[in-house]
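User: Please predict structures.

Assistant: First:
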Amino acid sequence: MSSFRFKQFEIIQDDNAMKVGTDSMVLGSFINGHGRKRGLDIGSGTGVLSLMVTQGNDDIKFDAVELDELSATECALNFKNSPWSDRLKVHQGNFLEFESEERYDLIISNPPYYQSTLLNQDSRKANARHEQSLPMREFILKSRKLLSDDGEFWFIVPAEDEQVWKKQCTSANLHLVEKIAIHGKEGGDIKRIIFVFCNHKSILEESSFSVRKKSNEYSEEYKELTRDFHFNEL
């Protein structure tokens, strides 16, 4: 059995198209869910992001939407096995067809963002990784429709796609309130960008973060960021 053990829950990922990785660890650790009541996890995969945020919030309830049937089944199992099973629900299907009377004050996603790279030969991995399964503009517009007036929309994208995501979100009348630049190594290139958008203008907060030292060991800031989640000390 393929699994990833956290301090307070475990992720089974035998059948998942996308395993737990650094993007999920960093995004899930950064997301500020304090005070939020209703969460939506788009393209939930294993359910790791929902679980990480729920661990730090005693009140939030999550709807998770996952296109891939096997991944959604595994996500439901991970939710059921967690200490917060009564606050987590997975919906299997296309996010663009997802209907809810709820407006969510926290929307999170590690979206399928590859646009120009060759499609993976594994169709399930291709859907999990490539924009063809969830077109960018439609994804953004649908997310904005479901976002509450005071809600926040958190997601992570490759650094080279920063401008196109900003442009599309701005054209959808979303406002950038926080940007976190993720370096693979200290002093190295920016690999990922975490964006936080909302429905109202605010002073933009910008910061940067390095996953590893130049020696390739995990950086102290990464250890501190993920301390509440990693089962084994890094």
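Second:
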Amino acid sequence: MKFIVFFLATFSLILFWPFSSAWAEPPSRVELATLAVSIGYRVDQLDWSIAGNSAGGNPNVLSALTWRDIESVQLQLTGRQVFNASPWTEADPIIQTRIAYGTVISGSNQDSDYAGDNRTLEWSRSVNSADKGYTFDISGAVGARFDKVANRFSMIPLLGYSFHIQDLSITDGYQAFSDDVIHDTYFPTATEHPPAVGPISGLDSSYTAYWYGPWIGLTVETEPLSRWKIALTGEYHWVEYFAEANWNLRTDLAQPISFEHDARGTGQVWSLESEYVFTDRWSLLLSGNLQSWQTDPGSDTTYRADGARGGTRLNEVSWDSFALMSGLRYRF
């Protein structure tokens, strides 16, 4: 919590500090290529649910899993190459890339199973730790920069492609609720009963999610004061979603791939960056990033230990994330 407060306070200070008019004018050299390195704090939330059959019923939510407050320390690299404008246009072509890797340091998970529609007749619930894993993001785009108002305001339409991973864990389990009566009434042929209330020994399951696809976006850059720049970027993504899970305590399921998820969806990404240019080549950066992703209904394919395969409907997957970063940018 102290880490979040520190970044929020610093971020706000840079954005709203009353900069002195006595600062020197910014350097005049044209920025053709830049590379930035940033480090910061990231929090992710992810949840999904499946139905009892491929039509989305029996019940409409059979199992639901949530990962909450997945905190990571994230390292990020961003680069941009600006080319000289062609003779027939005033826009400067741009290529830009972003790569980020986060190490998960804390988080929690809940796994609930139901026999009735709309999350009723719950017969199993476990609350678990999720303090292992990683996040990975890579995104590239091409665009064109249009400068307005004496080169102090720019608009950059972008067309890109991105790939994202959340590698999530389920460990240190605790069975918070079990109801054998509901289980045996509605699932009499099932071989797996819910564990007894108490610690779950040996739990070490994983769920790895992949989001990838094209996007369009727009960056608006402005320089309200000498040496101080602000950039706001919005992106809209179309994605394919794929995930695979290893449920290590389910003896009736195959290992290491117990089931897979497939779906399509969309996402929105918003980024705000503040940059202070303190030398001809170096800048200080503070940035914030918000992401919101959802899938349409998809498929859940289950692989059983005896070699059989089953399937049902994946209702939806939802992923939200925010990050606060600070770093340095170098102009070549």
